[in-house]
Each structure stands twice: as structure tokens, then as C-alpha cells.
Automatic annotation (TrEMBL):
This is Sigma-54-dependent Fis family transcriptional regulator. The lineage of its organism: Bacteria, Pseudomonadati, Pseudomonadota, Alphaproteobacteria, Hyphomicrobiales. NCBIfam families: sensory_box. It holds the Pfam family AAA_lid_14. GO terms for biological process: phosphorelay signal transduction system; regulation of DNA-templated transcription. The keyword Nucleotide-binding applies.
């Protein structure tokens, strides 16, 4: 092994350290903050098929390949554990950790946790068989859906699935547009699941629902004591949590203008600064945005920054509205089966009359509305869609109070169905309905006798 000056030396300790590093049977490499290799042990040199002198002083990506993240780790994006890497035809599972000195990051070390992928798979199989609990990423960070969950037939849906596959193949920003409930979040999750970042987190932020005074701290994190009520040890923001994966910015059209400026700066510099902090932290993530707002119109009327729009709109995806898709019957059958399984009841069969009713409706709430109507059908035995046509009808003044009470009772029926579907879990029921927890509690309160 050849050591950099700061590790080289003739003392007994330095000699012993060199031997230890070479006798570690796993590959080990260290870089400085520029990503330049400053240390590499014999096992790694053997895997690379060369001598240490050939590799020292070169950038890690030149030697190991572009998919390594060690140079980002050396710039402070955090630790990667279990990061898969293919080096000269060898599949490794690595751990990449920053090296600190006097409270500052001075580089990073990459260590192969497993150099033999097949052996790892066999070990994993044995562990799974023994049903040992393997700690997993928190559920909220994982994408739950893949391309197979995007149900639909016909040319529009085929083109949609092709667009998702294309977006998954390139590590570029994606802007997903479409009406409410069309499956924009589903599309974002499918892209993440299909992409090279699938082992990284999928972190979701709803730009419309976070109070504007909290949104900076939520996105960029904060240092301890940054403001009244802040945790003393500080908190990482969504950008940091999404390191190595995808940050999904839902309802981007509702992002306050001031924050749009901050987001643009992050995208330009690739760094964030926590609220109350001074040190920039490098970030490595992919941004996927979604909106049901006409973003171009928002740009024209000055409510959305044009420069940010162009940064985000690299790979645009338009999710078709349900009424345009032409595959309603197919989708309905599929969803009915899925909901029935979730509720542990047999799936009802749709009659010709049911089909007619479904096709006659315009589905302003798209697939989410269809899911809810079908859930209600399972619970009540009949399809009720009419009152949800409110956006497409103009009721007379006399009809308004009747319409209001019918909408209320529809909302309560939907609430009961969603609670059943979610096994009584209110958070999940709110998600099923696409409303906030506070709205769900309001509905529950309305429903309960005074
Ligand atoms: N093609 C599809 N196949 C199966 N399920 C779908 C499809 N599209 C949407 N869904 C389902 O419809 C519901 C709404 O989807 P999603 O939350 O992705 O919509 P959205 O467009 O992000 O909604 P919003 O604009 O209100 O945030 C989810 O339960 C989702 O699984």
C-alpha cells in the first residue's frame, strides 16, 4: 500500500496501521474533499488490476466509475450504507462514510461490505429464510408503487407508461402535470422504483399544505436553536433526507414565490444551508415535481418563476384525465378487485347498468374519485356518482341547499368507506380520501350526534 504523506511514516504505529489496512480482506479507498484518491488498500488494487501508484492522486470517478458517490460523501451529503456499485465487472455493496477532523469533513472512506454479490444473495436468502428481522428504511421513505401498479390500457396509457420508463432511464428533473387524482404521485413513485435511485429514499413534500413560515425549515432543515420551538439538536430537512434518492415536490404550483427563489438557488448550486446555519451541505438527489395547476399560466401571470419553471420542466409528463383515457371499464374492474381484497370481501360484478352509469359520469376527481365510488359501491351495494358532478353542473339557487346536503351525505358515506378501507386508521383514511387529517376530523365531528 502507498500512503499519503499524512499517513506515511516510519513509526511502529504507522507500519502497524499499514499492515492492518492491507490485511482487511475487503476493498478500502479514501478520498479528500475534491474526490481525489489519497489511500487505497491492496485488496482494492487487486480488484482494479493495478498498483496503488496508478490510482493515487486520480479522481475516484476516473478509477471506479461514474456511479460512485464517494466524492459527494466527502462534500457532506451524509453516509451511504449498502450502496451497490459495479467496479470493473465486480458487483460490490459498499459503505461510504465521511471522515471528520476538528469538526470538519476532510474526506471520505469507501469500504466494500460485500465484494461477492452472489455470496451476499445467498447469505440474504439464508437470513430471510430464518425470518430474522432485517432493519429496513422507514416506510415513509420508500416508494410503494412501481410501473405494474399503473393500470390502464389503450394508446394514451401505453404512451404514459412509455414516458415513465423514459423518465426512469435519465437522472433528470421531471415535471408531472395532470388533473387532481389522475395518478401523478403514482407516476413519480413508478419512476423512482424503475430508476437507479430505487434503493435510495423517496421523500414526499406537499408544497401546498406546509404553512409558509415552516416550509424553509421543512425543506432545508434547521440548526439547533434556530428559532423558538426548534429542537436543540437541529433537524435535517427533506432535501437531506432525500439524499441518494428522489425528492417529490407535490403541488409545486402552490409553492410561495419566496421559496421558489430558494429552490432555484439549491438547484443551481447543488447545496443547501440549514435555517440558522452557515455551512453549505452538498446534496445528491433527483427532483420530481407535480402540479394540477396550469403552470405556464402561473408563469405568465408572475405567480411562478420562469427560470425555475425551465429548470424543473426538463422531462415533462402529462397524465391523462380519466374521461379521456377510454379504458374506464378495465380500470374499474381492476380497482374493484383491489379494493375488495383490501376489505376482505368478494369483488362485486359490475352490471351493464353500472357500466353505463360509470361511463356517463365525467370524473372530475379522476381515478381517486372512481376508487371512492367503487369503495362506496362495495359498502352500500350501488354506484353513486351524481352529486360529484358538481363542477360540471350549475344548480339553480333552489337546488343549492339540496345539493349541499347531498354532497354532505356523499362525503359522509365516502368517509365511512375510507375508514373501513383503512381498517379504522384515520391517517390512512385521510390519505385514501385525499384530504388532510384536520378535514377528516371535521367530517367526523359533523357526523357524530351533537
Ligand atoms: N393508472 C392508475 N392505476 C391504478 N391506480 C391509480 C392510477 N392512477 C391513479 N391511481 C390511484 O388513484 C389515487 C390517486 O392517485 P395519485 O395520488 O397518484 O393522484 P394525484 O394526481 O397525485 O392526485 P392529486 O393531484 O390530488 O395530488 C391513488 O390511490 C392511486 O393509486
Amino acid at each position: 500500500m502507498t500512503l499519503p504523506e499524512w499517513l506515511a511514516g516510519s513509526s511502529e504505529e504507522a507500519g502497524f496501521l499499514r499492515l492492518v489496512l492491507d490485511h482487511v480482506s475487503d476493498c478500502l479507498v479514501a478520498v479528500d474533499t475534491e474526490g481525489t484518491i489519497v489511500l487505497i488498500n491492496d485488496p482494492y488494487c487487486r480488484l482494479l488490476g493495478g498498483e496503488a501508484e496508478e490510482f493515487l492522486g486520480r479522481h475516484i470517478t476516473d478509477v471506479v466509475g461514474p456511479q460512485t458517490r464517494l466524492h459527494f460523501v466527502a462534500r457532506g451529503i451524509g453516509t451511504h450504507i449498502g450502496y451497490p456499485l459495479e467496479v470493473r465487472g465486480h458487483k460490490l455493496v459498499t459503505k461510504q462514510v465521511p471522515v471528520h477532523k476538528d469538526g470538519r469533513i476532510i474526506g471520505a472512506v469507501g469500504l466494500a461490505l460485500f465484494s461477492d454479490y452472489d455470496a451476499l444473495k445467498k447469505t440474504y436468502g439464508r437470513i430471510s429464510k430464518a425470518e430474522l428481522a432485517i432493519p429496513s428504511k422507514p416506510k415513509a421513505w420508500q416508494s410503494k408503487f412501481g410501473l405494474d401498479d399503473v393500470i390502464g390500457t389503450g394508446p394514451l396509457m401505453e404512451a404514459h407508461r412509455d414516458a415513465l420508463k423514459l423518465a426512469a432511464a435519465y437522472d433528470l428533473p421531471v415535471l408531472i402535470c395532470g388533473e387532481t387524482g389522475t395518478g401523478k404521485e403514482l407516476a413519480a413513485q413508478a419512476i423512482h422504483s424503475l430508476s437507479d435511485r430505487s434503493t435510495g429514499p423517496f421523500v414526499w413534500v406537499n408544497c401546498a399544505s406546509i404553512p409558509s413560515e415552516l416550509i424553509e425549515a421543512e425543506l432545508f432543515g434547521y440548526e439547533g436553536g434556530a428559532f423558538t420551538g426548534a429542537r436543540s439538536q437541529g433537524k435535517p430537512g427533506k432535501f437531506e433526507l432525500a439524499t441518494g434518492g428522489v425528492l417529490f415536490l407535490d403541488e409545486i404550483g402552490d409553492m410561495p414565490l419566496a421559496l421558489q427563489g430558494s429552490l432555484l438557488r439549491v438547484l443551481q448550486t447543488g447545496e443547501i444551508v440549514r435555517v440558522g446555519g452557515t455551512n453549505p451541505v452538498g446534496i445528491d438527489l433527483r427532483i420530481i415535481c407535480a402540479t394540477n395547476k396550469p403552470l405556464v399560466e402561473l408563469v405568465q401571470t408572475g405567480r411562478f418563476r420562469e427560470d425555475l419553471y425551465h429548470r424543473l420542466n426538463v422531462l415533462p409528463i402529462e397524465v391523462p384525465a380519466l374521461r379521456e383515457r377510454g379504458d374506464l371499464a378495465h380500470l374499474a374492474e381492476h380497482l374493484l378487485a383491489r379494493i375488495a381484497t383490501r376489505l376482505s370481501v368478494p369483488a362485486p360484478v359490475l352490471t351493464a347498468e353500472d357500466h353505463d352509469r360509470l361511463v356517463a359520469h365525467t370524473w372530475p376527481g379522476n381515478v381517486r374519485e372512481l376508487e371512492n365510488a367503487l369503495t362506496r359501491m362495495i359498502v352500500t351495494g350501488h354506484i353513486s356518482t351524481a352529486s360529484l358532478d358538481y363542477r360540471h353542473r350549475s344548480p339553480s339557487v333552489d337546488a343549492k341547499s339540496d345539493l349541499k346536503s347531498r354532497m354532505k351525505s356523499e362525503a359522509h358515506a365516502a368517509l365511512r368507506a375510507a375508514l373501513m378501507q383503512a381498517g379504522g386508521n384515520k391517517q390512512r383514511a385521510a390519505e385514501v380520501l385525499g384530504i388532510s387529517r384536520a378535514q377528516l376530523y371535521r367530517l367526523l365531528k359533523e357526523q357524530s350526534p351533537a
